[in-house]
Amino acid sequence: MKPHEIEAKSFAIIDAEAGPHNFAPDEWKIVRRMIHTTADFEYMQMVRISNNAVAAGIKAIRNGYTVITDTNMAKTGIRKDLLAGFGSRCECLMADPRVAEQATERGVTRARVAVEKAAQIMENGIYVVGNAPTALLHLLEMIHNKAANPALVVGLPVGFVNAAESKAALVETNIPYISNVGRKGGSNVAASVINALALIAKDKVAGERT
């Protein structure tokens, strides 16, 4: 089977096994891709999507704003060709030598410093957290202090220390978000959300042209 045939069959299996649900069509495209990435149907219960999150993410991509990630793994998984079609790009500052230097000097994580460095290019864009709870917590602090203004936060850090807590803090805000409850998550899942949003945006453009 060709790759697109495998993907189509996988989605058909997911649709059949998922059964009835209350997700809106575009929300389901996101959740279904998260399940496709992880083979984990628990995302149907764990995912949290704010009312305006999907629209905010599509708007950011279609307007060519930047997608910023907390890991190069998430950046690798995001389809840059889809973003480029809208003039958007994906950035990760974790490997920036200045980030590492400042983190060492201040005794904080590189993820925290990278969020600060990304503040300018984050304006109206999408910040994606797939690994570091410290990045998500500091981002929420910066947003609260009006030092950062992303259009959408994809908060899916994974792990045992502050991952669940940071996501719980995110879903209590009025920031547009796509997240989940509990310890699960990861850079691959976070990347799948962006890919789903970019594909939805692409389909909407195609629909407008017909």
From TrEMBL:
Q: Name one GO molecular function term.
A: precorrin-8X methylmutase activity
Cobalamin biosynthesis precorrin-8X methylmutase CobH/CbiC domain span: 5-198
Pfam assignment, any one: CbiC
Q: Which Gene3D superfamilies match?
A: Cobalamin biosynthesis CobH/CbiC, precorrin-8X methylmutase
- Give the record's GO biological process terms: cobalamin biosynthetic process
List the source organism: Desulfobacter postgatei 2ac9
Per the similarity annotation, which family is this? Belongs to the CobH/CbiC family.
Q: Which UniProt keywords apply?
A: Cobalamin biosynthesis, Isomerase
Kindly tell me the pathway this chain contributes to: Cofactor biosynthesis; adenosylcobalamin biosynthesis
InterPro entries xrefs: Cbl_synth_CobH/CbiC (IPR003722), CobH/CbiC_sf (IPR036588)
Under what name is this protein listed? Precorrin isomerase
Coiled-coil residues are none
For the protein in the UniProt heading, the enzyme class is isomerase
List its EC numbers: 5.4.1.-
